């Protein structure tokens, strides 16, 4: 189901977190908190929500929690967007053909 993924990514801070993890690889909660303008506790809550929808996972390393992105939900969301894009392309193609035939 892609709706929870899109909902989670609809928040700018969570989108920044996922972007950071995609571009920079795994990092600690403290490092994530440096990427977004919120407290470490707020960053942890964002990360927990992202984990709940399957976008990130974490492991313990000493006292730190290390987070990394999970690509499968992103791939599924991308596949869904590709299907929508093809549908829109087909709809626009039919509209274009109708307009051109009616001229």
TrEMBL record:
Q: Which organism is it from?
A: [Mycobacterium] nativiensis
What are the alphabetically sorted keywords of the record? Answer: DNA-binding, Transcription, Transcription regulation
HTH arsR-type domain segment(s): 1-89
- Which segment of the chain is annotated as a signal peptide? none
- Name the SMART domains for this protein: HTH_ARSR (SM00418)
Protein name, please?
Answer: Metalloregulator ArsR/SmtB family transcription factor
Query: Domain of life of the organism in this record?
Result: Bacteria
């Amino acid at each position: 189901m892609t709706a929870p993924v899109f909902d989670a990514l609809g928040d700018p801070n969570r989108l920044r977190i996922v972007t950071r993890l995609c571009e920079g690889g795994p990092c600690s909660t403290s490092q994530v908190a440096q990427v977004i303008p919120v407290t470490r506790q707020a960053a942890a809550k964002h990360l927990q929500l992202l984990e709940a929808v399957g976008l990130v996972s974490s492991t313990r390393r000493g006292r730190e929690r290390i987070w990394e992105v999970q690509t499968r939900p992103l791939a599924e969301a991308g596949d869904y967007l590709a299907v929508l894009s093809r549908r829109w392309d087909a709809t626009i193609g039919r509209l274009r053909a109708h307009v051109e035939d009616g001229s």
